Amino acid sequence: MMTRTRLSLATLVCLALPAGLLQAQATPGGDWRADVRDYARRMTDEGRASGLGVAVVVGDRVVYSRGFGLADVDRGIPVDEGTRFYIASSSKALTATAVVALAEQGIIDLAAPVTAYLPDLEFGAGVDADRVTIHDLLSMTEGIGDAWPVIFRTAYTGDFTPEQLIGLLAGAGASEDGRAFDYSNLPYNILGLVLDAVDGEGLEAGGWKAPVRKTVLEPLGMRETTALVSSVEADRIAMPHAPGPSGRFERIHMAKGDTNLHAAGGHLASARSLARFLAVHVGGGTLEGRRIFAQSMIENIQMQQAPQDRTFAGYERDGWGYGWDRATWQGRRMLQRFGAFPGHYSHMSFLPEEGIGVVVLSNDASGGQAAELVAHFIYDRLLGRGDLQSYYDARFEELTSIDEERARGHGQHLAERAERLAPLPHDLDAYAGTYRHEGFGTMHWQVVAGGLEVNMGVLHSRAEIFDASINALRVTPTGDGTVVVFHFDGEAETASRVKWNGVYFERTEP
């Protein structure tokens, strides 16, 4: 009997797609799996990516998955099919599907105001919480403006309670763009509170995780997807990396823990596990021939709920569904949901008319360029692009040039920083202490092993001198570098405040 791995793509599509979704399909010749393997392996072997998790979906089935490169360069741990990557904002699609699934069960009403589930919720000037519906949040047309403290606490420090978030939202007024689509973590953070409210008797931090697990992960058999870092052994996680001065990838701080995995960006997943979620969307609600969700529910999630006009990584995004960007690529309709965080990048997309989808996950801070190039290669290979080899050889060389230029710029930046190094004008104890901002929380600075270190919730970083003349230090709590400046009042012997990302934290303790 012919095995599934030897079937042509066209045959696989016919077997995988449910009735009514069959479309004319390309039939690529040769061994497309080997071509995908070779191109992805080239990315990691030649240093364009640290590690990659790759999966391909045809119809409602995952037909290919593989890992490439290293999950941890320090320990030499390779990426395999089960390695979990942080998927960042790709989680929005999972959260949205959970909300709509609960609406199908009659537990949530998409037309109901958010206050039906969070009666104590209020917003700032110009936004009536009773007129913001669940649909508005899903479609990102809720019309709420800046609420950076909520986003900062949920995505970065993990230092919050649901009650604190609700209190901070009372200061979030109307957006300057009114009810136009505005991409942000905020509405999905609020949806996380809604999921928590309908699932239990009281709100708790991370309470959204159980309903997403029960309504999406478990029915789809996504056993390698989790919203708890603590549930995964360290050697099964793709640790974050960034290009070092030599151009080679170096480990950076893993800035994610249980508390700052949030409803707008809160899962670790292997490529093959995330591809099961993709497959149920490609299959119109079926997975491996089994009906999981109603086709009408999936269609509602994927249809345009709000227009948008953005360009990202070569895609023209013209609409937003529930948790999905609607885009075009080479004239084809594509649904996609990507995610990025320092040292992490996720690509999840599918072509509904062709019935194929791609997941590419990476664990480096190169902006996802290698992951996007692999995704494009897979689509073009499956669709039978004629000049495939020459085109993607040229694209690879372009990426190599970009990486080499980045390495030169990084080296120059380090040299410039070295010129500013000098002893700080005060003893280290003058900088140590606790500093607080009402919205953003508390930071603790302490002297450790002859240097300064900072902690904010789950974030931690050792500091290095950036510009001693202005008491500026560089820290990397999220993996990316940022500069903080200490301020001294008059002849004071200790710093009175710290400026971080334009926000002042006032000293509260010596």
Describe this structure in words.
This protein is α+β, with helices and mostly antiparallel strands and 510 residues long. Among the domains are: 4-85 and 221-286 and 301-404, 3-Layer(aba) Sandwich (Beta-lactamase), CATH 3.40.710; 428-509, Lipocalin (Beta Barrel), CATH 2.40.128. Helix content is 29%, strand content 25%. It has helices at 9-16, 32-45, 91-104, 134-138, 148-157, 162-169, 186-199, 209-217, 271-282, 295-302, 369-383, 388-420; strands at 51-58, 61-72, 77-78, 85-86, 225-226, 241-243, 249-251, 268-269, 286-287, 290-291, 306-312, 315-320, 325-329, 332-341, 344-351, 356-362, 433-437, 441-448, 451-456, 459-462, 464-467, 472-475, 482-487, 497-500, 503-509. Strands 3-2-1-16-15-14-13-12-11 form a 9-stranded antiparallel sheet, sandwiched between helices. The longest helix is centred in the C-terminal third of the chain and has 33 residues, at 388-420. It starts with 8 loop residues before the first helix and ends with a strand. Mean pLDDT is 91; it is low at 1-27.
